[in-house]
Amino acid sequence: MSVIDDTVASPLQPSFKRALEAVESSRIQGLINKLGMMVHPEGGYFVETDRDFRRVPNPFLPLNSNGREGDSNDDLTRSASTTIFYLLTPSSPQGHFHRNKGRTMHTLHRGRGRYVIVHADEKEDAKTAKVETFVVGQNIHAGERLQWMVEGGKYKASYLLPDKEGENQGKSEEGLLISETVVPGFEFADHDFMPASKLADLSVAVKRSSFFKSLFRIWRPPVSNSGLPGPLKLGEPAVSLQS
């Protein structure tokens, strides 16, 4: 894994700007309606399609001084797995930087997009974290990915790309539609957005590279009226990532 994708010739720039009011094409709106999707706080749309009825011990519970699971308000168990459809569209084309505690397998169904992964959980020294970026799409001969795994503890963000490579002002007829399967199953308690303190922690890397500078101008975590990262609420419009 390289720190920066070799195919990126210039700082990353989203191909689509988020609309103030999401007005989707009839084709995309038909897809949203057919799948029963709702607005996702990370950006885009989603619908949960499966939640395993089997329960497994919650691996994220903190340990007490005796090495045993300590008292916690969290559930003692999690679903074995959960799966969702996730959709980015020209009107809602970006996903905020966030992370899950569980590992997430992504599977592409249609469209193209770029993912940016910040490996903040495995910094090589006290100052920098690796950044990985890649394109997902059907053109596997050009290095585009059909499946990708994001391990727990890593921040990820994504944005929609045109259907055809090289079209900066191109079109996306059906958006970027993927499935995500989280193991153990997703719970809001196991999810958070990238806070300002984490950006500050990566500030040395930001100063060293125009790539990092551009990256963090583009992506911002949603904020509440207090200026702090806002709570994750289902079905509410996400804050724009544009600076």
What does this protein look like?
The chain has about 240 residues and is of the alpha+beta class. Helix content is about 15%, strand content about 30%. It has 4 helices and 13 strands. It has helices spanning about 25-35, 195-200, 205-210, 210-220; strands spanning about 40, 45-50, 55, 75-80, 80-90, 95-100, 105-110, 110-120, 130-135, 145-150, 155-160, 175-185, 190-195. The strands form 3 sheets. A 6-stranded antiparallel beta sheet has the order 1-2-5-12-7-10, with no helix packed on it. It has a 5-stranded antiparallel beta sheet with strand order 9-8-11-6-13, with no helix packed on it. The chain is globular. Residues about 205-243 have low confidence and may be disordered.
Largest sheet: 6 strands, antiparallel
Low-confidence stretches: 206-243
General shape: globular
How many angstroms does the end-to-end distance come to? 29 Å
- Give the overall average pLDDT: 77
Per DSSP, the total helix count is 4
Total number of β-strand segments? 13
